[in-house]
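Private note to self, pasted from the team thread so I don't lose it. Backbone tokens:
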């Protein structure tokens, strides 16, 4: 007779029931990692930030809330545009090695191009999608290595690029005294200063001062003074990062603009096993830019497969992600303008980016004409068979969303460490063998929704690290002026109170 309860040994590789239940119910999906911990109180105009253990270079700004710092005297309807880089990459379950170079993907290769203010980077399959990773404890090691690699790449680039800001501006430094109304610098102020000083720099480079004009010396001194005012680098800081099994999303912001980012929140939706596990699904990050523009970034890994009907499962994933994504509203989350609180759902945001491995395949991929179009590099003819565009045209998914013109080859599937597409792959399962075709397709995509967004570039990288090629896009964000917010501030400045506001 057996005594006691039979138990798995401690060395058992089976996940614990508690861990499985947590992942099944998506518990603690609101927690995320950041270079700063934000406590917002719009009523008092205060924002506290603390240094994170991940911030290794020790230069994190301890910012104050600048959400009320818009300059009222400006009568323009539009603020200067911001630049946002968006990238997605399915890395095939591989952890980055020491020699991996991602600069071709993240950095603009044109020397004259200005760096982005915000980087939004999404990954899929940062860990192998096996039972241990899907049901067991989260493996944070690969995510940490990707963060370290991204930090080194972005900050190495920014150290070689100068950004100019006048000395008489104090923006969110720990040693600075309490900011007055005229001292506060908003996101638009920083962008405007950057543009003006860039113009000064270009003038200095393109023209030589006249030695015959006695007044030219003062202009030279002003040019030299502007050059000496340029700090070596602002660098980039991690605003937020979140992992769900193999899906990983991180948002990086230029350090001097970090105080302009508020209301950071995260929501995860599992769409894998039984429709709830995290081997497929989405991670969404919501934030507010300078207290007026709400943005949402949705990184997804949708259902795979190229059989007829698999596109229906992907459409269902999109519908469920939109339905189930919810951002928690907390008492201290209050926007100082027409919204009483930040958005709760994806579609309530002003500007939305949807990125990831959408697993879209080519319809009728078994026909012989596909290989002929590939050989001719006739991407536009192939895109007529793209499931995502077919489903979108038929109104079955992504109604109202936009995608840029695709002028690059299919991003999937390549043989390992090569530029050759995998036409057929043999899978082994015990003693049985079967062939499964992998028709090239544009699985990796970036879509957007919202006004005031212009796509400047839509391209792919050429790293052979994975069987997918990374994709990137550069956006120009036009931030519309909020006249109600300006009216509120103007009324507060002269001590007026009105129920209208």
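Design output:
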């Amino acid at each position: 007779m057996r005594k006691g309860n039979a138990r798995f040994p401690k060395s058992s590789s089976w996940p614990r029931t508690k861990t499985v239940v947590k992942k099944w119910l998506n518990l603690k999906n609101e927690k995320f990692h950041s270079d700063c911990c934000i406590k917002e109180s719009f009523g008092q105009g205060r924002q506290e930030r603390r240094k994170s253990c991940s911030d290794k270079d020790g230069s994190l700004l301890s910012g104050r809330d600048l959400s009320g710092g818009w300059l009222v005297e400006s009568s323009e309807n539009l603020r200067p545009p911001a630049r946002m880089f968006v990238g997605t990459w399915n890395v095939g379950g591989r952890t980055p090695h020491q020699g991996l170079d991602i600069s071709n993907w993240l950095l603009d290769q044109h020397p004259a191009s200005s760096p982005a203010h915000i980087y939004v980077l999404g990954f899929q399959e940062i860990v192998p999608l096996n039972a241990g990773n899907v049901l067991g404890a989260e493996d944070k090691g690969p995510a940490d290595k990707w963060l370290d690699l991204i930090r080194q790449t972005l900050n190495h680039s920014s150290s070689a690029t100068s950004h100019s800001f006048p000395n008489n501006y104090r923006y969110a430094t720990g040693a600075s005294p309490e900011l007055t109304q005229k001292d506060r610098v908003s996101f638009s102020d920083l962008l405007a200063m950057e543009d003006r000083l860039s113009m000064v720099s270009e003038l200095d480079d393109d023209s030589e001062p006249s030695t015959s004009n006695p007044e030219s010396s003062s202009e030279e001194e002003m040019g030299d003074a502007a050059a000496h005012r340029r700090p070596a680098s602002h660098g980039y800081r991690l605003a937020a990062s979140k992992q769900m099994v193999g899906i990983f999303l991180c948002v990086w912001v230029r350090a001097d603009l970090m105080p302009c980012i508020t209301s950071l929140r995260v929501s995860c939706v599992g769409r894998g096993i039984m429709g709830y596990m995290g081997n497929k699904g989405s991670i969404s990050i919501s934030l507010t830019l300078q207290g007026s523009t709400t943005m949402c970034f949705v990184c997804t890994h949708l259902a795979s497969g190229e059989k007829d009907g698999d596109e229906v499962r992907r459409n269902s994933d999109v519908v469920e992600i939109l339905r189930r994504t919810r951002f928690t509203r907390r008492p201290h989350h209050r926007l100082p303008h027409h919204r009483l609180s930040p958005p709760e759902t994806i579609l309530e945001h002003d500007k939305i980016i949807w990125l990831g491995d959408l697993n879209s395949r080519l319809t009728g991929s078994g026909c012989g004409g596909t290989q002929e179009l590939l050989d001719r590099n006739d991407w536009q003819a192939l895109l007529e068979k793209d499931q995502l565009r077919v489903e979108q045209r038929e109104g079955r998914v992504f109604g109202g969303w936009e995608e840029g013109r695709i002028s690059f080859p299919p991003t999937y599937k390549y043989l390992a460490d090569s530029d050759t597409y995998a036409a057929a792959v043999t899978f082994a399962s015990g003693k049985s063998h079967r062939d499964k075709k992998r028709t090239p397709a544009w699985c990796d995509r970036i879509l957007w929704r919202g006004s005031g967004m212009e796509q400047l570039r839509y391209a792919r990288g050429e790293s052979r690290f994975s069987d997918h090629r990374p994709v990137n896009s550069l956006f120009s964000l036009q931030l519309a002026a909020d006249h109600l917010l300006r009216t509120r501030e103007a009324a507060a400045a002269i001590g007026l109170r009105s129920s209208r506001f």
